[in-house]
Amino acid sequence: MLLVAPAGPTATNAGAPAETTRPAASSDRAERTTQAADFFEGGRYVEAALEFEALRRDYPNEPSLLFNAAASRDAAGHFAHAVAYVREYLARTDIGPDDRKQGEEQLEEAARKVTPVTVTVTLPLEGPQTVSVVARHISNSPADLRPELSFPLSNPRQPLKLELDPGAWVVRVEGPGYQPVEQQVAVGSAPLAISLRPELAPVVRPEAPQARMVPPKVVKDTARGLYIGGGAVAAVGLGLIGGGVGMIHGQRIKTCDDPTLADCRRRFANAFVIRNVGSTLLGAGAGLAASALVWRANDARQRMIAWSALAAVGGVGVILGEVLAVRSPIPFSRDNTNPEAALAGWPEHWREHRHSALPALGATLRGLGVGLLAGAVTGLIVQRKHLSPGGARTIRVDPSAGPGHTGIVLSGRF
């Protein structure tokens, strides 16, 4: 149901809603509009205005609701609201000539009963230049319900003219980035002028999130585990090195009396294997212990960088060690392993190959690289688990195989 604009204002009840057409089929809007009209016809103008204002918010494309909200406020003596509503009504482009004429008459009637209040707003140059001026009526009666009137101030260099009823009002300036500032004024019949200077709201900077830390107990236990593990592996490696060197320089190999030399060659080769395995374990233990030193750093990013560098060094060590471990024993293998190799004599053969330092160096480098890699990856995984929501689940371990190589690939965000 649509309310028809009034035929014309009267001296006592300017802008009253005219006859309404009752719909045959009831709806929420129709019921509410009928109720608002009944309030108006019963002289309950504030209630009628409140209902028309609610309808206007729900149905903004119905200009008659805005007009009748103005008429209800005018009838209640709330002329500032009536003037504001009618000016908004006349600014619409969807009203006909007759409705516009009636609106102009309504505005002319209500404008005689308001007082101009000029508001000058001074804004800081460094702040936003768009604010709103809000006028709130201070009522003496709980039944005198009036919504706030808001007027946008798009150009702060020009004063804003409000049209308010005589009485007490609070004029407030508010906007994004500003602390609201207000002033109470007593509006009479004479024009008023006030100035408001809002201040920029303090910038509340969010507190920096507390940096997540690996629990000290985890740091202590992990570092201790790497130290103990590295020390144990290194100790086993030293034992094997001692055993292998003892076998190489022992009498059973040094003064071999096997006529075929087969047993001598086998023992000689096994001794080097034991020594090289011990060198690998010694390097691995040293690498684990070295990676544990990174836990002394307090900054998680510094630890991550250090472990990443150790992992790179470890990878290079594994490659170099493997190259030395494979290439350097070739002369020894050719002389000692091939049963058809001619030997000038066992003492000469033993003296020539008894040291074979390059295989031991290669085994040590290979072990050091493995230890550094293992310790660095352990540190990265433990730290990632405690600092990131995904934890260690974001890390993948995949097999890798190809021509001449086999191994595992560790991937993810560390």
Walk me through the structure.
By secondary structure, the chain is an alpha+beta fold. 51% of the residues lie in helices and 15% in strands. It contains 12 helices and 11 strands. The protein has a 4-stranded antiparallel beta sheet, with no helix packed on it. Helix 4 (79-90) runs antiparallel to helix 5 and helix 6 packs antiparallel against helix 12. It starts with 27 loop residues before the first helix and ends with a strand. Mean pLDDT is 82; it is low at 1-16 and 18-26.
Tally of contiguous helical segments: 12
Q: What's the helix-strand series?
A: HHHHHEEEEEEEEEHHHHHHHEE
Strand content: 5-15%
The biggest beta sheet reads:
4 strands, antiparallel
- The residue-averaged pLDDT reads 82
Measured between the Cα atoms of the first and last residue, the distance is 67 Å
- Percentage of residues in helical conformation: 40-55%
CA gyration radius, whole angstroms:
47 Å
Please state the overall shape, judged from the principal axes of the Cα atoms.
rod-shaped
In terms of per-residue confidence, which ranges show pLDDT below 50 for 5 or more consecutive residues?
A: 1-16, 18-26
Which structural class matches the secondary elements?
alpha+beta
